[in-house]
Amino acid sequence: MPERIAFRMNLNPDQAAEYEKRHAEIYPELITALKNAGVSDYTIWLDPEDNHLFGTLMCSDDNKLDQLPNTEIVKRWWAFMCDIMESHPSNAPLQIPLKQVFYLK
Length: 105
Prior knowledge:
This protein is of the alpha+beta class. It has one domain: Alpha-Beta Plaits. The protein is 27% helix and 26% strand. It contains three helices and four strands. A four-stranded antiparallel beta sheet has the order 2-3-1-4. The longest helix has 10 residues, at 72-81. It is globular, with a radius of gyration of 14 Å.
């Protein structure tokens, strides 16, 4: 059964417009990599009061999410985004997993 994943990230202050701009110009190769890894229905929301980003995505049963961080396209995207959001030394965005407490289908 497909799994829904939710997480929170932190955007640096005054970077909302730049974050949206960069995602409007997302690398086509990154979209392909995400889809090939089994990702679908990927959405990111912004809380402008505290600069928290809230993301959800669906992943297939046979997903390859664990392989994405090793791909050159993901590493390039992280390097491109690390100046506007909280990131690890590897440039990976700091993601806080969220626990589902309610779901209405």
